Amino acid sequence: MIEAQKAHFPIRLMCRVLEVSPAGLYAWRRRPRPSPREEREAELRGQIHEIHAGSRGTYGSPRVHAQLKKNDVQAGKSRVERLMRKDGLQGKVKRRFRTTTDSEHALPVAPNTLDRKFQVEGPDQVWAGDITFIPMASGGFLYLAVILDLYSRRVVGWALAAHMRSELVESALDMALGARVPAPNMIHHSDRGGQYASSAYRAKLEVLGTQVSMSRRGNCYDNAVVESFNGTLKQELVHEARWTSYAEARAALHDYLEVFYNRRRLHSSLGYLSPADYEASRRAG
To answer: Beta strands 126-135 and 187-190: pairing type?
Structure first.
């Protein structure tokens, strides 16, 4: 304000009226101004921080760069990486997973029909399921069953319980069937766990006319997409959580799965689109 009015009023008079020290004003004038390049970099750093915070602190430089590109912000990958390193921003790193599969049972198992053909041409042609454990602050566990559509990596069904009985995976399947319509001869893939091999679960799939596929014994890579999802879930949410109740854990998982993962999180395998945006773009295209 003082600078804008200095042609009309004495500076000392304005300083007295505005209760500003003249010495402070002159010191401010002598302070070096940021260059246009420094101003642009400061703006970019602010945008990077905003994207990183919006990802719940999970994005590394590749996803931050992809989001900047979606926002029509021009910035090179190396520049984004350098600025994130300078500001101490980084993505979260996956830990090794622990298996929850119990394949020591006498129930019938299906062959590995999917055979690692994870690239799928259309929605609801291949669903893949798995169970992962959710540690609680008390030292106990809850168990999460998920079903992913391999076409878009979208979580189409999930269920949380304090047990690993077949009802857990049945509930996840029921949620998926309530939201989606399986394609004719859809493949349902899972590991060889007793929950998926149970007569109740197999009966549900048989009614749908679904092809049942199961991983080979002890081979987690046959279900790599869902195993990767479980690792991402643990990395981005579960490892830092200290949930004290079922309700608290379920609310946090619902927010992550339905709000963040399905609708906002960028997936490198989908060209840095979220599952929802990927499905929408393919329908529009």
So the answer is: parallel
Report pLDDT digits (tens) over 181-214. Answer: 999 999 999 999 999 999 999 999 999 999 999 9
Could you tell me the sign of the dihedral formed by the alpha carbons of 255, 258, 261, 263, in that order?
Answer: negative
Q: How far apart are CA 164 and CA 105, in angstroms?
A: 14
Residue 96: per-residue pLDDT: 55
Separation between Cα atoms, residue 250 and residue 112, nearest integer Å: 32
Residue ranges per structural domain of the chain: 36-87, 126-284
Q: Cα–Cα distances in Å, from 227 out to 60, 61, 132? A: 20, 23, 9
Q: What is the CA radius of gyration of the chain?
A: 26
Does the domain formed by 126-284 have CATH 3.40.50.150?
no
